Amino acid sequence: MLWRSVAGFANFFRSFMSRLLRPLLSTVTT
C-alpha cells in the first residue's frame, strides 16, 4: 500500500515539475 502511494506521489510530482520547469527552461534557453 505504501509503495502505491509513493508511486502516485512520484507521478504527481513528475507532472508538476514538468509543468513548472518547461516554461522556465524555455525562457532560459531563449
Query: Which regions contain 5 or more consecutive residues with pLDDT less than 50?
Result: none
CA-based shape: rod-shaped
Number of helices: 1
Largest sheet composition: none
| Structural category | mainly alpha
In what range is the share of β-strand residues?
A: under 5%
Listing every helix as H and every strand as E from the N terminus to the C terminus, the arrangement reads: H
Q: Kindly provide the radius of gyration, computed on alpha-carbon positions and rounded to a whole number of angstroms.
A: 13 Å
Report the end-to-end length measured between terminal Cα atoms. 44 Å
Task: Please give the structural blueprint.
Layout (H helix, E strand, L loop, with lengths): L1 H28 L1
Structural overview:
With 30 residues, this protein is an all-alpha fold. 93% of the residues lie in helices and 0% in strands. The protein has one helix and no strands. It has one helix at 2-29. The termini are far apart. The mean pLDDT is 89.
